[in-house]
Each structure stands twice: as C-alpha cells, then as structure tokens.
Amino acid sequence: MNEKMSIYETILKQREDDSSLPYTFQDPQLAGREDTLFILMTDGISFTQKEEIALQCCQIIKEMLIRQTDTAYNKIQPFLKQYPMRLFFIELKERLKALLEEELIDSQELYKLGMRLVKTSTSPEEVKLGIMILGLYPNDLTMKVLRTLGFHSDYTVYAAESIRQSATKENQFLFELLQNTDGYGRLAALFLVKAVSDEQKEWIINHAIKSDFLSSIYVNVALQKADIRHYLLYSPITAENYRHSMYVLAYREPTDEGQLADDILLFMRKIVDAREFATSFIEQAGLVMIWLQVIDSWKRDYAYLEKQLDKTEQLSDYWDQRFNNYEEMIRMIEVFLNKPKWQHVALQELKVAKETDFLIVSVLQFLEMKPEMADFMPRLAANPLGLNLLDFFLANNPLYYFEEVCYYLTNLLSDHVFDLPFKFEEEIEKESRDLFKLNIWMETLFKTMLEKDLFALEWCLDALNYYHPKMRRLALQALRKYQDLWEEEDVADALESLFEFEENKRNIRILRRLLKKEDDSNKEKINLPLPYIISEPALTDKKLLDTYIAGMTYRDLSIVEELIKRGKILQLVREKDNEFDRYAIGITMDDGYLIGYVPKADNRVLATLLDSNEKLYALVETDALEADETMISIYLRKTIEGPLKDRALSRDNIVAFPSKK
Fold this sequence. Notes:
Layout (H helix, E strand, L loop, with lengths): L6 H11 L15 H9 L5 H21 L2 H4 L2 H7 L6 H13 L5 H14 L3 H11 L5 H11 L5 H7 L7 H11 L2 H10 L5 H11 L6 H9 L2 H9 L7 H10 L10 H12 L7 H28 L8 H21 L2 H13 L4 H11 L9 H6 L4 H10 L1 H15 L21 H18 L5 H7 L5 H13 L6 H14 L3 H10 L27 E7 L20 E6 L10 E4 L5 E4 L2 H12 L3 E6 L10 E7 L24
Antiparallel strand pairs: 1-6, 2-3, 2-5, 3-4, 5-6
C-alpha cells in the first residue's frame, strides 16, 4: 500500500531499540487521548448514524474482498478520513460478525485483509479497522499482533474492544493490556477489565491508578468497580497498604450528593484512626481531602434532617453516631496535621511536584500557608498556567500574591503575545490551546483589580494591545475604576490608538467615557461600608423572595458589568440615612461598590431583618446585567452552631461546624 515503513513495523523497530513496557516511544499525554475520551466519556453519534456508517464501511470491505484491486483498496482511506473508526467501530464489528455467520463474506479473505491492514498500513484509521477485523479471529498469531498494537495507547481501546465476546481469555488479555500500557491506553483497559482476582485488585490499587496526570480519573473509574471497592473498603488497614489507600482517598471525587455513604465514612474513620502510619505528602493530602469531604457531608446531613424532622422529633442513634463520627474525625485530623513537620512536607512537595496542583493547593489552604512565589517555581515550570495555582494566588490570596503574579506573567509571556491580530467577537478558545489558559489568567488578574483595591497600570496598558476583546474591556474597566491613580498623559495615547481600531461596541462605549467623548457625569460611583461579607451560599440558607435590582440606571456599571453573572453573590447593606427611603437597602459588590437598591415594594421587611442583625445577601439569577431587569433572589444566612442545635436531641453531641480554611 505504501513503500514507507508501516505503523506496525515502526512499533516493532522501536520496540527492538527499547523493549521496556509500557512503551517509552509514545507520548502518554497524547497517545489515544482523542479516541479514548470520545469512546468512554461521550455518547457519540446516534445509533442510526452508527449503523448507517457501518453499513457503508462493510460495502467497501466487500468490494475490497471481491475485486482485490488498488481501486477498491483506495476507497477505504478517504472513507475513514470522513468517518473515523471511533464513531462506529462496535457496530462495524457486530455487522461483520453477522455477515460471517450468514456466510455473506469470505472468512479467509476477511482475515487476510485484517492482517494486511494492521501490518502494512501507514494510516492509523486503517490499522484500527484491521484490529477490529482481527478480533473476530482470536488465534495465537492475531493475539500476538493485537498485543503489539494494543500496548500502544493509540490502539488500546480498539484491541480491547475487538476481542470482547470473541476470545476465551478476554479478561486476562484486558488485564495484560492494563499492566503494559500507560496514559489513555491504561484508562481504556481499566474501564473494561473485570478485577475479580485478588492479584488484579491489588495491582490496580497499588499500581494501575498511579499517574502523573490521570490519577483522579483512574481512581474514580476503579471505584466504580464493585470488586475494587469492596477489596479497598473492607481490607484491614496496615502500614503496608496505608499509603495506597490514602492515594485513593486523595484523588477520589465526591458524589454530586456530597453526603458520604456509610461504607465510605467507615473506611475514612479507619484511615483516620490509623493516622500514625502517615509520613508522606500523599497521606497528608488524603487526610485533608477527608477533612473537606466530612465537613461537606456534615452540612448536607444537617440540611437534610432539618427538612425531614419536625420540632419535637428526636435524633435517632444512627444520626447521633454519624454526627459524633464527624466531630471526632475533624478534630483528630486537625490536631494531627497541626505539627511543624507537615508544613515542611508540604514545602517539599512544592519543590518536587509529584502530585497534582489541586492537592498541594488544598493542603496549603488547610495549613493556612502562603509560601513565597519562588517556592512555586518548580511546579510552575511543569505547568506554567496551572488553573489551580491561579485560584490559590488570586482567588484565595490576592493581597499576598497579586504583584508576584503580575511579575511572573510579565517574565513568562513573549512580547509577541501582544502582537496577535485583533479580534472583535468574543470567542472562547479551545481548551487544548495555550491561549485558553492564558486568557483565564489574564481575566482573573483584571477581575482581581476590579474586585479588590489592587492596580497594575502597565498590565492595563499592555492588555489594550491584546487580541481578545474581553481582555481589552477588562483592562479599560480597571483604568476607569482607578482613574484617579494615573495621569492622563501616560494613558491618553494608548487609549486614542485603541479607539482608532476598536470595533467591539462595549469596548468603544468605555473608551468614549475614558476619552471624555461621552458625558457620564450623571452616573454615580458610590461605595458603602459593609458590616460583613458573605462570599458563598450555604445549604442551610433560606430563600426569602425573588426581585430585581432597582436604580441601576443612575450607577456607573461599566466598572463591574463583567463581574455580575448568574450565581454571583451580592451584598445587602442598610442605608439608614437615605433621604428618599428610610428602608433603603443598597446592593453592592464585595468592596461596597453600589450597583442599585432593593425595590421599595420589597424592602420594608428585609430592612427590619437587617436592623435586627440578621444577615442577608442576593444571588444573581440572570445571565447579563440589564437595567431594572437583573433578577435576584434574596437569602437569609441562618446562624448555624451545629446540626439541629435547636431540635430535641437524644444526646448532647452537636457541636459547631468547623469552617473550611
């Protein structure tokens, strides 16, 4: 088919040079990624479409078998380019199997075609087709070929699926793939294998779920398997298996419900009781993740019981014991990790960067540590635009890291980034592109300026030359907010230059105001002092009413419009000296910037609550900021001293919720 070395021959040659397994000549972060994630994580196309494509493919295969000419063979490559194998490979195998059973195609010729495709083709899609054909013939030779190809992550999922319900030792073959693949190939094998023997269970927990970049997915796929789950949860905890168990808990993702199942809670309790086995970062991280999940489950249990129990009902022994368990686990973890050695362990992890950014950030927040920016450099070198690190720097500790982040990005980015052609439509970059993450970093940097009293003039001026219109707008909004901090001669030329080229209407509006081409003197910029700030909703908060934000037309919203989206929490503050309304309740940002008021028709009862020292907040319910059309829901923050504090309880065991750090 081609004088170039085939894919199969290339793998054999590379394996001669390095026979170690998993294959070192593949990129584990890329090989098989697209196909494996599409096959395992999406529904794909409709069943009707799959069947139709499989039918067309079989017609081409029949023609190849009957005519055996170059003209017939040349039809398959463009077909597979239009319809990649990942779309229909299972339906194709089932159709081929049915055609063989009905003797509508020649079995020997089909086998030869499969061998020809896998051994001589330079096209990955043709090799995948050959793999699916050979899976219908599970003899020693084909299994050898399938192993050679299946150990490469580009083909693992096809090798695994090709022999399903065909080979007598199917599960053994899947486990062999699992042991000898990496990255997305291992994910495919892990997804399909049945871990029924103790050897398989132990190997999966001790080895298969360990990864530099897929740990969380591996762990959660493994935990979906009943055999793995039972083996893990009900095995005795020993010094030898403690670290492996902690790895699972560190990377385990909670369920959507958030409440811990009884078996998981019991397992966590056994792990916490055996905490003296903990010596390394992964065990420290596992304890922190237990701590976080126990707090969430505790709060959800409270919310559930408050809805279920009436005022006089007693707490059952089951719930009594569960709440006791929560309290004891929280305290044991806090006391155990509140030792100087654990700060040293966390700093060492920063330097060697073995585990994920998410875990180190969670541990740093638990320990309330703010390491120097230099300590993050090994981790940033491996993942320069890591989003979990961004959250730690600017979402959680902006006052400490803002200037450091500005300096870091300045040194990281090439000047060419600001020479990209302007765009005027607000498109989102593909997640696979570096610009996607860079845009998130820049957006967060500017929103930090807008939400906090932090300003970097040079970054604002640089961003006026950035290709993406949203970043230009955020920079303009920051310049408008901090207009008193810069001199007109320092900024005017940059604004005038942008005004000549800008086509984005929202950006032009802000530019006109900054250049004083539009009179906005009737727009007020007011900050109100806040007695408290509510930063996130709680399960126990009580919704009081739905309403809208009044008086927005009188406010300068150009500074904050990008910050107010559905789900945003806004602060409510009494304005007792308001000359127009003695029940006035201002609606503000976290820094007290006034954006409007609670309508008069709704504010009297709410004002009484605020005057009685109750805490209220508003939650934005619309997708964009529109004057007098921005809908909000108003909530009462219930003071929680512990689950069911005011209920008639069977025992005096309820304590205050610990707060997440």
